[in-house]
Amino acid sequence: MAGQLRVHLGAAPGVGKTYKMLEEGHRRRERGTDVVVGYVETHGREQTEAMIGDLEVLPRRTVHYRGATFTEMDVDAVLARGAEVVLVDELAHSNVPTSRNAKRWQDIEELLDAGMTVLTTVNVQHLESINDIVRQITGVPQRETVPDEVVRRAEAIELVDMAPEAIRRRMAHGNIYRPEKIDAALGNYFRVGNLTALRELALLWLADKVDDELEDYRSSHNISDTWEARKRVVVALTGGPEGETLIRRAARSRGAELLAVHVARNDGLSGGSHAHLVAQRTLIEDLGGTYHQVVGNDIPKALLAFARGVNATELVLGVSRRGRLQSLFSPGVGVTTTNGAGSMDVHLVTHGQVRKGRALPHRASALSRNRRLAGFLLATLGLGALTGLLIRLREQVSLDSDVLLYLAAVVLVALVGGLWPALVAVLLGTFMLNFFFTPPFHGVAIASGENVLALAVFLVVAIAVSATVDRAARRTREAASAQAEAETLSTLAGNVLRGAEPLPALLDQLLETFGFNGATLLHRRPDAAPSPDIQHDAEAWEVVASVGKSLSTPGEGDAEVLVDEQVSLVLCGHPLAAEDRRVVQAFANQAVVAMRQQQLSEQAAAAGPLAEVDRMRTALLSAVSHDLRTPLASAKAAIGGLRAPGVEFSADDQAELLASVEESLDRLTRLVDNLLDMSRLQAGALAMHPQPTSIAETVAMALDEIGPPGREIEVHLPEEFLEVTGDPVLIERVLVNLLRNALRYSPPGRPPMIVVSAHAGKVETRVIDRGPGIPAEMWDDVFLPFQRFGDRDNGTGVGLGLALSRGLTEAMGGSLTPDTTPGGGLTMIMSLVQVELA
């Protein structure tokens, strides 16, 4: 008998998986179970090592590979020991080559096959199905993975959870990594965002596992009643206008999972409006729900089957739109669904369409006019010819054969001309059979009861066959029309709006689909005065977009689709068919959305330069009034002192005053250079020469530029060679500004630090100081020109340097963002695009 597997699942290293596993091992041993430690990796953590305590630890197997020595779990020793419970850490671990199994989970399967119970640990980032998502979030590839199915087969999975802030505190206290690795870890993998995302992945993965287990249990025990283990609300959509009311009503259930379902007939034809369903699907997804479509002719049965399949707790339907007369003959979907819902709550929501009846689709003829005319001719002339032929053969052909031949003629007429020509053929055929072939001949009386029965059967069968043939032809045409509408709406929703100019592309698609000569989207001018002839008043309308023949007023077109009181889509070429109006209405609605997006983009583009000009003007005024005046005042005071009559200065005093003058002029030069660069940057005239640049070399040049103070800065560079795309001179300029700022605010004995790392195609350079820091709500103000936060002297200006640094970084396609230094201080993060090495 195979043993049982128990997995301790964690969101990240350091949450306490191994500690929990050892704790469970002690509990089982205290209950008298034979427990041994097959393999535990403590990573030097004192609390984990202490937790092993007096548990029996089996010796590891030593492996020599390529001149190095490794230790692995000794599977043979564990099997020989034959304990009831074995503790094996790191389920996803890859064994050293030459081992019996490539993966540790394969070693564990041997132990399970031997009947042992195994307690193990794994982090969510090692699960195969979400390995790529973890890499996208953290930028760190996980080469050691375990198939999800191995973990899902576990008898029990325990989530070892810990809040991101608590993990970071454990890290800062040295409970996870050694002190020299703490800062780099907190700034890279153990960022709050990374830990939060990993925690959510672990919870979602485990929730799916719990859902599967619950569904398996309900299925194996034949339980069809709803269990309210998780609140799920299903909204039934008919494709009518009341759908939005139902969705919003269902969305008011706090904490519930929202699902919308539309039941389509299994013949492929939908009784609802495609345009309404598209809009309602967008609404349900905007509210965080999901949209589903199922097929079935019995709508109540299909709704209940779907609701029970997803273990829904509530079902929301609209009150019937059927009229009172229709309700007399059938109770309706709402009543029928409620009667069969069992323990599930069913909410019937009233709306504005109650008792207004269903808007029946236009029943266009299934056949062309020419075919109907051909059917009438065939019904008259064909039956006349058949009658003449059968009169000649009256002696050779019986009445039964006559009936069958007339029936075949009726079917032929139905195939050619549809229902109405077939009904004419039925009446003519019945009369001719009675008049010419049923005794007494040439009269309407029928002598034999058997002949009456034959004619009656002929009449009923002929009418039934005619109706069936006509319905089949009509459904074929409706199905083709529905398929064309679905394909059109799919193109409209998926492909048209992906172009660079969505509005013209959408109108082009409209012309191509419906064969119009021109399509114009008109917007009524806000200052247009109401008038009876406004449909032909060109001054009252403005053209938003036009394709093909352009129109200036709605009255010039062959068809018009109103979107609202201000917007109209005008078409020319031919009148708009009634059955096409709802799809064209969807085009019009989407055109208005594209129009408004285009207007917003234009407004944003127009406002951007104005805002930048205003910001630049403010920066220049601040510079003239403050930072330029300060070094000038210092230089002037020193020079005035040297030139003062009657004052004798020693050589040392003169040298000090001259050094002050030189320092002030250097500061003034830097400020002027920054102002000029900022001006060029805003005007788009800053010369840049982007190229692959080694970040390590740029850091070294920046430290040289700073001079002796730069020797105190701690530098942590990765072992791999990293290159970024950017101008090396500008990158150095940014680093110099950031490092000078960090040196200015770092307390004595705690110099700044540079940490370089790569994440998800980006190279991040972190300049970390241990100064007073800046509150998070003031981070945006840091990058406004000439902002000061606790400067120690009036000659120190940091705002312009940081504003320029952010502008230079963004001009190179990167970003410059602040963050809090763990333990106090400010961290500036320069992120640039990484160059992939061939």
From TrEMBL:
Residue stretches in coiled coil: 651-678
Keyword annotations of the record: ATP-binding, Coiled coil, Kinase, Membrane, Nucleotide-binding, Phosphoprotein, Transferase, Transmembrane, Transmembrane helix, Two-component regulatory system
Membrane-traversing stretches: 373-391, 403-432, 452-469
Domain called Histidine kinase: residue spans: 623-836
Record-listed E.C. numbers: 2.7.13.3
GO cellular component term, pick one: plasma membrane
Source organism (scientific name): Kineosporia babensis
Reactions the enzyme catalyzes: ATP + protein L-histidine = ADP + protein N-phospho-L-histidine
GO function term, MF aspect, one: phosphorelay sensor kinase activity
Statement: the UniProt record of this protein carries the keyword rRNA-binding: no
Protein name: histidine kinase
Membrane topology: Multi-pass membrane protein
Subcellular location: Cell membrane; Membrane
Pfam families named among the record's database cross-references: DUF4118, HATPase_c, HisKA, KdpD
SUPFAM superfamilies with a match to the protein in the record: Adenine nucleotide alpha hydrolases-like, ATPase domain of HSP90 chaperone/DNA topoisomerase II/histidine kinase, Homodimeric domain of signal transducing histidine kinase
InterPro entries: HATPase_C_sf, HATPase_dom, His_kinase_dom, HisK_dim/P_dom, HisK_dim/P_sf, Histidine_kinase_KdpD, KdpD_sf, KdpD_TM
